[in-house]
Amino acid sequence: MGVISIEELPARLAGGKTLAGLDLGDKTIGVAVSDQRFSFAHPRPVILRRKFSLDAAVLLALLRKENVGAVAIGLPINMDGSEGPRAQKSRAFVRNMAQMSDLPFVLWDERLSTVAAERTLIEMDFSRRKRAGKIDSAAAAFILQGVLDRLQSLGASARTEPEPPSAA
């Protein structure tokens, strides 16, 4: 399917589907999955990266198990708004996944998501060693929660738009 806009997500998430969030690292893929009400992001264990075809198979099996209807993937944009090599890797990952799955992807600006996730884990008093094993899934949850919050605001704005006057 490839990349869709966030505004197209609600149509893809009908029928009890969930939404997944991914944070791509060089060594791991952080994963988080929403609840069916699209309120909360729940971290899942990281996927250790080996080879794309193996990583994709593990990821797709997890997404099927979690009844995922779409995937939000963090796009690591530079602080100046430009896209560097890591953003290009994320776009290539989506292109390759689109050849293996019909799931739609939403690209989400992930600036500072890892920093925010690490601060949260520090506040929760995780040791450095425990943080290392959880940081990518925590970042995926942070990315996914941003998407879920945006979906909630889109839904709220759609409900508050005035209806056109009826012809009397």
TrEMBL record:
- Outline the extent of the YqgF/RNase H-like domain: 17-117
Against SMART domains, the record matches this protein to: YqgFc
Q: Name one Pfam family in it.
A: RuvX
Note the InterPro entries from the entry: RNaseH-like_sf (IPR012337), YqgF (IPR005227), YqgF/RNaseH-like_dom (IPR006641), YqgF/RNaseH-like_dom_sf (IPR037027)
Top-level taxon in the UniProt lineage: Bacteria
Question: What are the record keywords, sorted?
Answer: Cytoplasm, Hydrolase, Nuclease, Ribosome biogenesis
Instruction: Cite the EC number.
Output: 3.1.-.-
Q: What is its main location?
A: cytoplasm
Query: Which subcellular locations apply to this protein?
Result: Cytoplasm
Query: According to its UniProt entry, what is the function of this protein?
Result: Could be a nuclease involved in processing of the 5'-end of pre-16S rRNA.
**PANTHER family on file:** POLYNUCLEOTIDYL TRANSFERASE, RIBONUCLEASE H-LIKE SUPERFAMILY PROTEIN (PTHR33317:SF4)
Which family is this sequence assigned to? Belongs to the YqgF HJR family.
Identification of the protein by name: Putative pre-16S rRNA nuclease
Q: Which gene encodes it?
A: ruvX
